[in-house]
Amino acid sequence: MVRFDMGPMIDCYAASDIRTAAWARAFLDRFLPKRRELASVYDVPYMAEQPSRIFHSADALMNYLESNPEQRHVMYWVSTGEGLVRQAIVAPTIDGAMILGLSCEVDGDTFIATLCHELKEFTGAQDCLADLELPPPASIDDFLELVRSVSDR
Q1: Residue 58 contacts residue 75 (beta carbons within 8 Å)
Q2: 3 state DSSP class of 134
Q3: pTM, entire model
Q4: CA neighbours within 13 Å on the CB side: how many for 102?
């Protein structure tokens, strides 16, 4: 069952230099094993008014993006299970990397810190970005700039 009565969400992101469909699936299987895709159509380029390609599954899109490292996209899955993690985000970046994210219900700093630690451990990243309902950055440089700006608050 998918819950749509979600309140404020915290998004936690970590960047990875691995950009494969298998890596994205491993992330999803680890952090959101019970899930469904939120979109049924994926346009390439991302958010294009006149897409050059259209994919009908995230798996097909991820396979395409693996071979096209200059393309970015954002894919979302919603939890169909229990727990505080409600969504997973896979966002291949324009610079050939991938940002992996989790959206969770606001439940205090301890859970967010634990989730960020687990994301960093899984990806091997040094930084985790956590903020209220924040879309994933388009590049690693944008990600690092957001990390700096959030930590300066």
Answers
A1: yes
A2: coil
A3: 0.91
A4: 30
pLDDT at 142: 95
Count Cβ atoms within 10 A of the Cβ of residue 120 and give its class: 0-12 exposed, 13-18 middle, 19 or more buried: middle
Phi, psi angle pair for 100, to nearest 5°: -115, 135
Question: What tens digit of pLDDT does each residue of 87-144 get?
Answer: 999 999 999 999 999 999 876 678 889 999 999 999 999 999 998 888 899 999 999 9
State yes or no: cis peptide before 51, omega within 30 of 0.
no
In the predicted model, is pLDDT for residue 76 greater than 70? yes
CA distances from residue 64 to 45, 76, 83, 144 in whole angstroms, order as listed: 11, 17, 32, 26
Long-range contacts made by residues 112-118, C-beta under 8 angstroms, separation at least 24? 112/10, 112/12, 115/12, 115/85, 116/12, 116/14, 118/31
Using one digit for the tens of pLDDT, what is the confidence trace for 17-50? 999 999 999 999 999 999 999 999 999 999 999 9
CB 144 within 8 A of CB 126: no
Phi, psi of 56 (to 5 degrees): -110, 10
